[in-house]
Design a protein that fits this description.
It contains seven helices and 19 strands. By secondary structure, it is α/β, with parallel strands linked by helices.
Length: 333
């Protein structure tokens, strides 16, 4: 069966240099589940993260205001807390602290595991949904590697979750989070027709020129939640751009490495200070970049290896550090 969708993913883009100070989104999963270090954060470290945000004089963004805040240039950066997967440890460990301190967040829920061992129940999810500083997001039904499914099965997974959300919460969440941060152009275009915004797992800071259905987040875990690194992340600002290609983020043998190009705005300064790192060949190294007429290209050393290729670019803009990242799921041969 063939499905075709016209994408709404570029309809929001203002396409002028906005000097937006942005929304910095941070992603967590488990709390005090130390046997899962790649998705876990120590609760005491999590509390210190929140204190760092407060001491940096940044406000936490209430996700119920995300739409209006996204569409305007922010004079002050705000921080958005997101939690993926609705693990029971979030409810037992982090939720009481967030509740008592009224710190806003999004909880992205995959519907299939709800109520299973190690996961929250629908009663617990409804408890969180009832407060005015939280928002429930859509994280698919199965949380499988949906990029490997057929287009029909991908749509079935989303529609199955929709029915369950409607049954349990009486509505379908309008914000989506791609499982594992992976998506193809088909997936993104489908999501753009059925949701208001969608988040990946590539690093960067949200500004009003970013694609509404490819929003970046900084993933945090035991390794990448170290306090010195977190303090650096919190002080990043958007590195705005006019366009980024390729539009298709899933790479095949025929387009790996990709023809990577980023077009910046003519008003942007200090672009010669951009430094990029990429992990082609499964080896992180400084990228060979070229900047000409506000367009950045990268000459890759070799193809990216499965499962994911990544590029991270930063810019010292007169002492203000700007950042964006890209993730490429690699299709197996």
């Amino acid at each position: 069966m063939f499905f075709s969708f016209s994408s709404k993913s570029d309809e929001n883009n203002i396409k002028f240099y906005s000097e937006d100070n942005g929304i910095l989104s941070i992603m967590y999963h488990r709390f005090n589940e130390h046997k899962y270090p790649s998705t876990n954060i120590n609760m005491e470290v999590f509390k210190k993260h929140l204190e760092i945000v407060k001491n940096s004089k940044y406000n936490f963004l209430n996700p119920n205001e995300f739409d209006s805040k996204f569409k305007t240039s922010k004079s002050e950066k705000e921080v958005l807390i997101t939690i993926d997967d609705a693990f029971e440890s979030f409810y037992n460990e982090a939720w009481p602290y967030l509740r008592d301190n009224k710190i806003p967040f999004i909880l992205f829920v995959s519907t299939e595991p709800v109520g299973n061992k190690g996961y929250m129940t629908w009663d617990q999810i409804r408890e969180i949904d009832a407060v005015d500083f939280s928002l429930i997001g859509h994280h698919s039904h199965s949380h499988e590697y949906l990029i490997e499914e057929t287009e029909e099965n991908f749509i079935l997974d989303i529609e199955t979750a929709n029915k369950i959300f409607k049954q349990e919460l009486n509505y379908i969440p309008s914000l989506f989070s791609y499982p594992f941060g992976e998506y193809s152009k088909f997936m993104r275009d489908y999501i753009s027709q059925n949701f208001e915004y969608a988040f990946g797992q590539h690093s960067g800071v949200i500004d009003l020129n970013k694609n509404k259905f490819e929003l970046p987040r900084f993933p945090i875990n035991e390794k990448y939640g170290e306090l010195k690194r977190f303090k650096s992340i919190i002080n990043y600002y958007p590195l705005e751009y006019k366009s980024l290609s390729p539009s298709e983020k899933q790479l095949t043998i025929n387009d790996n490495p990709p023809n990577f190009k980023v077009e910046f705005f003519k008003e942007q300064k200090n672009l010669s200070n951009i430094t990029c790192y990429s992990n082609e060949g499964d080896q992180w190294d400084k990228s060979k970049t070229n900047l000409s007429n506000q367009i950045l290209t990268i000459e890759f050393r070799e193809p990216f290896k499965p499962r994911r290729g990544r590029i991270n670019c930063s810019l010292n803009d007169n002492g203000k550090w700007r950042w964006f990242g890209v993730q490429f799921p690699i299709k197996k041969n």
